[in-house]
Amino acid sequence: MFGFKTLMDSASAASRWVSSRRNVVNPKAEPKTPQVVRRIPRKQFDAVMGGAKAAMRELTEFAAQAKSRLREDRPIKQDDLLELLRKLTAAQKRIDAEMESDVAKSADTGDTEWDRRSYNLFALPTSRMANSPQAIVDGTLAASNNGAKDVKLLYELTVAEMDVAVARFNVTLSLITGEGRPDL
After folding, report:
1. 18 with 184: CB under 8 angstroms?
2. What is the pTM of this model?
3. What is the sign of the dihedral through the CA atoms of 84, 88, 94 and 97?
4. Using CB atoms within 10 A of its CB, is residue 27 exposed (0-12), middle (13-18) or buried (19+)?
5. Among 27, 60, 64, 110, which residue has the least CB neighbours within 10 Å?
């Protein structure tokens, strides 16, 4: 969907854009507190971005399969839910292994720098997306442990959480690629 170089260039542009919009309301205003810059090793950020893209692909595919299963005439059983949760757990393990491998193979020693706002707009949601398969499993298990017993509802919850994770990351990408910049 998006090329990695394009995303990184767009992320850099978005970071500059957000920084330049900071004093639009009162251009003479100085920040009251010193700006905190977070540094993330580029090879780690690149690996997380790859993990987020992989999670997006996997969640989109799993959600389509699960929705197809919901349209079938036979009822959703516990085995159906467990199979979906196993797929999500396996996807997270593959994503984690891929990220670890990417970090180990990279020779890049540079850092990415993020002010607080840019970090919250892009770096944090990217990390969340890379870890979303496990978060979805954890959420479904928590609902079950807290008393939800209807397997079909738990299955639908899991599908909805996959859709939400993909939609949330699409919003993040639209902010970075310039299609939906917020009016700050």
Report:
1. yes
2. 0.75
3. negative
4. exposed
5. 27
Instruction: Measure the CA–CA gap between 138 and 183, rounded to whole angstroms.
Output: 35
pLDDT tens digits, residue range 57-114?
A: 999 999 999 999 999 999 999 999 999 999 999 999 999 999 999 999 988 888 888 8
Write out the two tokens for 121: 């707009």
Q: Which residue has the tokens 């839910």?
A: 81
Give the whole-angstrom CA distance, residue 130 versus residue 122.
12
> Residue 4's closest CA among 106, 104, 116, 92?
106
Burial category of 51 from C-beta neighbours within 10 Å (exposed 0-12, middle 13-18, buried 19 and up): buried
* pLDDT at residue 29, rounded to an integer: 56
> Which 3 state secondary structure label does DSSP give 127?
helix
CA-based nearest residue to 62, from 150, 160, 172: 160
Angstrom distance (rounded) from CA 49 to CA 69: 30
Q: Which two tokens stand for residue 31?
A: 């920040």
